[in-house]
UniProtKB/TrEMBL annotation:
The lineage of its organism: Eukaryota, Fungi, Dikarya, Ascomycota, Pezizomycotina. Coiled coil: none annotated. This is NAD(P)-binding protein. It comes from the Eukaryota. It comes from Zopfia rhizophila CBS 207.26. One of its GO terms (molecular function) is oxidoreductase activity, acting on CH-OH group of donors.
Amino acid sequence: MAAKPLAGKVALITGASKGIGAACVLELAGQGAKVVINYSSDAAPAEELAKKAGAENAIAVKGDASKVEDIERLVKETVSWGGKIDILIPNAGMLPMKDLEHTTEEDFQRCMDLNVKGPYFLCQKAVPHMSAGSHIILVSSSVTAISSVMPTYLLYCASKGAIEQMTRVLAKDLGRKGIIVNAIAPGPTGTELFYRGKSEELLKTIATWNPFGRIGMPEDIAKAVGFLAGEGSGWVNGQILRANGGMTVGN
């Protein structure tokens, strides 16, 4: 039997108990990686996902991905369990629907803490445990490339714009250590959070934005992440992969 492409690799994924994060856990575990499933509050989905991925290949670890002290503990527990970090995916995030007029200072701080500060310091704390050939996959959004974006995406877009710049600069910085840095930028993706509060009519409209006539699924994004986490992406560095079925093209 051929070896799985990520056999022997250790991955850490934040916000991994549901949606795109959970699909990434199953994709990487299916390719042979050992995966740490970070979750913020609800242990049940994370523990169930760990069982599904294979109890010997996945563990669930609670932690607030917006707090540096929790990030440090998460990295420490990952290294204690797996001995290293080969694949880092700072996936935890929030989608505040706030235009300029209705954004409070608290809104801004919560969003930036989880969507920007968390990934920034997770990279900082994890890099000492990552060797040449390791991969960091940051998470942006194709919303940053849509010209018709709604005003209520202002705060979210600001945070994901920061992630895209972080990707470009970290690729230059960490490339000297042989660490590869890219970002995945999903389009509309059929997660529980995405479907919440949307009418059937709206969902059909969103599907028409895509040349394939459908909304993406978490597994679509996870397969792209699987590529970025593997040896085949070794010469792909500092890039934003817009996994959206062609809804937007270019940068």
